[in-house]
Structures are given as C-alpha cells and as structure tokens.
Amino acid sequence: MNWQALALSAKLAALASVLLLLIGLPTAYWLTYSRWRWKFLIEAVVALPLVLPPTVLGYYVLVATAPNTVIGRIYQSLLGKTLPFTFEGLLLASILYSLPFSVQPFASGFESVPHKLIQASAALGAGRLRTFFRIILPLSAGSVLTGVVLSFAHTLGEFGVVLMVGGNIPGVTHTVSIDIYDKAQALDHSGANETALVLLVFSFVVLSFVYWFNKKGLSIRS
Q1: 102, 143 contact by CB (below 8 A)
Q2: CA dihedral 209, 210, 213, 219 (to 10 degrees)
Q3: Which tens digits make up the pLDDT trace of 3-48?
C-alpha cells in the first residue's frame, strides 16, 4: 500500500469537498430559486462533467491554465509558479470535475423544502440569508451531507483528470488512482488489488452511510 499516495488523495478530496460546499451551496440556491429564463444553460454547464470524458475536461483545464494564458499569467504573477502539474492545479480540476456531485444533491434538497415555510419566514420579517440558515439548510441536511460525501468519494478515485492536469509526480500529484494504474502496468497485480480493494470497501461504506442517513432522516420527518 502506497500510504503517501493515499494521504495525498485524501487531502485532495477533503479540500475539494470543502471548497465545493462553499461554492455549491450558493450555486444550488440560485439554481433552485432563480426565475431567470436562461437558467437551464447554467444547469447544463454545472452538469457537463457528468457526460464529458475526464480526459477532455482535463485537457481544457490544462490549456486554460497554461503559463501563456490569462489565467496562467495572473496565477504566476501572484504566486510565482504555474498551475499545471501542481497540487493546486489538480485541486482546481477536481473542483470542476466533481461540481455536479455536490450541486445537484444540494439543489434537490432545497427543492424539497416546502415553499410555505419559506413564505412564512419571509412574512415574519426574516431575510433571505436568515431563512436559508434557519429553514432551508436544516431541512436539507441529508442532501447537503450526500453532496459533500459524494464529492469527496468521487474526487478520491478520479483518474483521467488527475493524469491530464497533474501528471504523475510522487508526493505532488501521484494519487491513489495513479498508483493503481502504475502497479497494474508493472504487473504488480497483488499491490494493485490491495489498493483497489481499499477504495472499493471505502466506497461501499460511504454509500451505505449516505443511504442509511437519508432513510433515517425521512423516517424521522414522517
């Protein structure tokens, strides 16, 4: 077991899921309650990573953050280094790749909140921000947890985006999925199986917990 690769993947997944929580909550709120007629275009952009091949997304992230681009020049002038083939570049690509796995569950939870409760909160003088934290967010706790957990698990096992944007630099971008690939390429089937089994068991436990939590939440509400 390559513990360095596993630790790096866990760090990447944890940071990505936290940032996706901060980005996903306002995005999902806007998608749920906005009446803009062209909102479906934003919804399509958010959901695009679900159908877009990871290598395609990784390629365009790589091109967009190259040193000769606007993003690349701004980042390099601020921090003195480039984004491609770094942990930070990998984090950016992971956020884009796992975005729908957080936003869609969040939005689903917000949509399930009875509109009459939101209207009642507004009638009592509560602003949108207070209504969100006192009414919408608590009633959507199960969906928010689902989004956070799914984005963490999805980032933990990603491969195509990692390979395109991060490459294979030990201690920097050599994640656990890359480690499995390297072991399989080297015909180290025992090592590849050991690492893959850990991810398999982890994914099963995570999904079981999410389903159990949501089922428990539904039974409490009813």
Answers
A1: no
A2: -130
A3: 888 899 999 999 999 999 999 999 999 999 999 889 999 999 999 9
Closest of 160, 172, 161 to residue 61, by C-alpha: 161
Q: What angle do CA 193, 194, 198 make, to 5 degrees?
A: 110
The Cα-based distances of 71 to 42, 57, 135, 211 in angstroms read: 21, 16, 38, 40
Return the CATH number of the domain spanning residue range 3-34+84-216. 1.10.3720.10
Q: Please measure the distance between the N-terminal and C-terminal CA atoms of the chain and give it in whole angstroms.
A: 45
Burial environment of residue 81 by CB neighbours within 10 A (0 to 12, 13 to 18, 19 or more): exposed
The number of angstroms, rounded, from the C-alpha of 153 to the middle of its chain's C-alpha atoms is 8
Q: Which of 177, 147, 144, 146 is nearest to 161 (CA)?
A: 177
Residue type (1 letter), 210: V
- Cα–Cα distance, 186 to 20 (Å, whole number): 35
Report whether 51 contacts 61 (CB < 8 A): no
Q: How far is CA 158 from the centre of its chain?
A: 11
Place of tokens 């077991």: 1
Give the residue extent of every domain in the chain.
Answer: 3-34+84-216
Nearest to 140 by CA among 26, 31, 217, 34: 217
CA 43 to chain centre: 16
Six token digits for residue 152 = 């963490």
133-183 pLDDT, tens digit per residue, is: 999 999 998 899 999 999 998 898 888 888 888 888 888 888 888 889 889
